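Supplementary Methods S3. Input chains for the assembly prediction are listed below.
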Amino acid sequence: MDAKTQLQFDARAKIIKALAHPSRLFIVDVLAKGERCVCELREGVGADMSTVSKHLSILKNAGIVEDDKRGLQVFYRLRCPCVLNFIGCIENVIQANAQHHKALAAR
Amino acid sequence: MDAKTQLQFDARAKIIKALAHPSRLFIVDVLAKGERCVCELREGVGADMSTVSKHLSILKNAGIVEDDKRGLQVFYRLRCPCVLNFIGCIENVIQANAQHHKALAAR
DNA sequence: TCGCTTCTTGGCTATACTACCAAATAGCCA
DNA sequence: TGGCTATTTGGTAGTATAGCCAAGAAGCGA
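Predicted structure tokens for the full assembly:
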């Protein structure tokens, strides 16, 4: 793997890593329905506000969400709705795993 | 977020986490072209064989690859080629980020 | 200006991940 | 069987991540 290839895979991994957490996936799922402010997300995630804020900053840093400050509140929205297909792919893998396990159990 | 939802997002995160590493993305990329044995992958990744083996076991555990032992060698292949669309989505985000940075720089 | 609210940042601890080396396992062939 | 090769597993050290609390920053309204 040469240096350029390495960089390419590092870049991909950085984005995927940003999605690799249940709370962040939940946030993405909620934002798929429209923009939300941090306190709304906090309720859903059920963690400390500071924790949610850090999750959001990770997603923002990866370019997955963008923020928009209006008055006291900061609204977040998906920057790239294509992340949703993404989740679809994952669900396929989960389905496939479930079938696989079922097939093994049936023996 | 209720318990059932939590489990669903945990399951998704587990799969995504398995992909969230440059070496593992590289492996997926290579396997997209066909099955490979561990030592072939090791060459590409450029890490210790034991390290590659552990990466493979993470991918296998997530249901992304499957293995097939033939003689002394163990061949790995993608179990769910849909992970490739997945990578496509990531590339979209990277593109969007690049354009965004360019737009900011142009100001 | 002062206090209140919303959000972010810094500090800390516990947990998880990664990579290497060394040792174990498994299959082949002499 | 004994040695050789391919791979996995165990151990360990360094690094990164996640969560909470406390403190800071910014906007609003009295």
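The two ends of chain B are 42 Å apart (CA to CA). The first helix of chain B runs from residue 3 to 19.
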